[in-house]
Amino acid sequence: MDSRRRFGKYKVEREVLDEERLEEAVSENNALSFFYFLIFLVFADVLIRSGITACMAYALLASVPPVFGLYSSLYPTLIYFIFGTSRHISIGTFTILSIMVGSVTERLAPDVNFTIRNGTNVTEEVDIATRDLYRVQVAAATTVLGGLIQLFLGVVKFGFVGTYLSEPLVRAYTTAAAAHAVVGQLRNISGVSAKRFSGPLSLIYTLVDVCSKLPQTHLPTLAVSAVTMTLLIAAKELNGFFSSKLPVPVPVELITIIAGTLISSYAHLRSNYSVSVVGEIPNGLQTPNVPSVSLFREVIGDAFALAVVGYAISISLGKTFALKHGYKVDSNQELVALGLSNVAGGFFQCFSVCASMSRSLIQVTTGGKTQMAGLASALIVLVTILKLGALFQELPKAVLASVVLVNLKGMFKQYSDIVTLWRTNKTDLVVWLVTWVSTMLLNLDLGLAASITFALFTVIFRTQLPTYSVLGNVPSTELYVDMETHREARQIPGVTIFRSSATVYFANAELYLEALKEKSGLDITKMILYKRQQEAKQKRGEKRAERRAKRQAKREVLFRRTQTAARNASVLPDLFVEDEAGCCTEMPMDGVIAEKEQQRWSEKENGTVFVIPPSPRTLDGQCRWEYLKGGDPDCSSLGWLSELQDGDTTTLGSSSEDTLSRDLERVSLGSLGKWTWDIHSIILDLSTANFTDTVAIKMFKNIFQDFSEIDVDIYLAGCQESVVEQLERGNFFSETITKGNLFASVHDAVLNCLNNRGATSPPRFDPSAVSCSATLLWKSIGSRK
Predict the structure, then answer these.
(1) 651-684 pLDDT, tens per residue?
(2) Single pTM value for the model
(3) Phi, psi of 490, deg, nearest 5
(4) What residues have CB less than 8 Å from 650, skipping those under 6 apart?
(5) Which is it for the CA torsion 467, 704, 536, 641, positive or negative?
(6) What is the DSSP letter of 312?
(7) Which residues of 267-278 are buried (b: 16+ CB within 10 A; e: fewer)?
(8) Which among 5, 180, 209, 774 would be 20 to 30 A from 317, CA to CA?
(9) C-alpha–C-alpha distance, residues 306 and 146, integer Å
(10) What is residue 61's three-state secondary structure?
(11) Distance CA 507, CA 565 (A)
(12) Judging by beta carbons within 10 Å of its beta carbon (0-12, 13-18, 19+), is residue 600 exposed, middle or buried?
């Protein structure tokens, strides 16, 4: 009885114990399952960061086996971890660089060069193993050469080379490259065996060839692609919708690749439906090999393009993250780090890498703050290469191609830039369109060269056609602004302040001078030409005055002799005639004969006739000559002289030479009445100039010399120290152009002008004020003794 009770009690206790153990086991299993789930999430997160799925997919863009995409995400990352300066970018494969590498490999290693004839069949097949091996060599050689170019540019401090790739140019280039990627993946999407062309118009030729073979589309491959893209697009949209509620993004690409691999493996898609798969992925690492130097000559242009584009993408991402997180990125050191990464990677059969945009963004959003996150990604890639690579052998290439196309969605959104640039900047829109068209038609390498060349031409074009303006002072301030755009600005009386919106150099020096003439209202060329003509006339007038003085001296001698003869005899007046040579001839005048002779001599065109009057003495006791006809034919050459008419009488005097000289001295550009102006000073605002050259220096010298001839002072304001040094080296300063013509600001120059010349404008010339004393007057010089 007791034994039964004890047994029953033991049984109950055992059941309770079993239940407790069962509960503990269940809880342990739940904990273990949850732990495994966390491990899966962490592993998935690391896989996302390491970009294993993307690097295998981008290997297809580079036209090399997928395993080399894994290599490209391992070795360069380790090198950048040591030499890089950015804390947040993740080095690895990138869409654009993969496409550019693919264009090189397929150009130098096309399928037609590796066809073999089947032994029992007349059909030709492609030796894929040999082709892929040579393509890997081409990609490695291109990568090493591109890395050497980056390393050289970094050593010589050419980190600014990436600045020549403007944002519109880069966005248009990546958009066109995305189109190249789509066309290149159409073969893997549809399963057709289309050719891949190279060189200009290769995109069009490839697209035409694919379209012509659309009836040969492999339907199972197309179905796999369609299902994959549909699931990826839907999952990415859900990811974006719930991004604020998810701690980490759902690893859509990873789940897709795992599901695609499992389905392909269990459904035997390769053997049953002839779906192309990744194939064998060897376990282990490749031994380093020296790339073929003989290929450098054929890929140097593509290597330079890869070096520039890869650096531009990396430095733009690096500076963006550095600005956001408060640290500095050394552009030259980034070139060195990127160059070393590509050189080292090329020795291990990697293709060109740069900062991966998607991986960098994921690394930042998931909390990565140093390159230790990149080191962890490299270790995961290493584990995948060593142990997990064989698991992806049955992965369909159509799945990888679908991953590539879906990830290009962001680049296709860049077509909206056309509308934005149309509203904001037409010049940038032209750069965008030219870049896109040239890249689409000329392929990636030539398209990039043409795009950069055109972008530089737009810069030159903008500097050749800058905005020229006349500045005015804002009342009660020291500010000087464009008078055309600021109505409150007032011009300083007598002072013109001229400014160009661009620096002055050989390409726009002539345009600068023309704009200065137009804005100041002074056609300096015509004015100086006219002044020089008047100076020549003045010199000719002085020579004529000298000749007249000599003739007058002879007349005085003759007058004294006739005066003496007149006192001794009361006779009819004798006729003295001065011929063209200045010689005087005495002729008797008797009655009608004398009148006829007088008329005959007075009709000579170039003679001056003087007659002694019948009554030689006047009331004041002086003897006068009476002018009958003639005159100097050149006397009317000066526009301000009065023309001598027949019958005019003038008086001869001894001061005629002095009077003529004084009147000729009054002949100046202003007194000629052809131009009038209110400007006495011109200030050239050079605050926008950061350099100058010999052509511009000569132009500035000419401005100083030319405007000084019309009594207008020239001053330079706002010159930077580098510009002043260039002016000194160009021998700009002299005795006439001193550093006293330089001022630190426009306001200082204005104050100097007002102190030297005053605030009022110079008086205008009144043509009616010309004195008639400029007319040649001959005074009487003799007197009766």
Answers:
(1) 333 344 444 334 333 334 444 444 556 788 999 9
(2) 0.66
(3) -125, 135
(4) 627, 776, 777, 778
(5) positive
(6) H
(7) eebbeebebbbb
(8) 180
(9) 6
(10) helix
(11) 80
(12) exposed
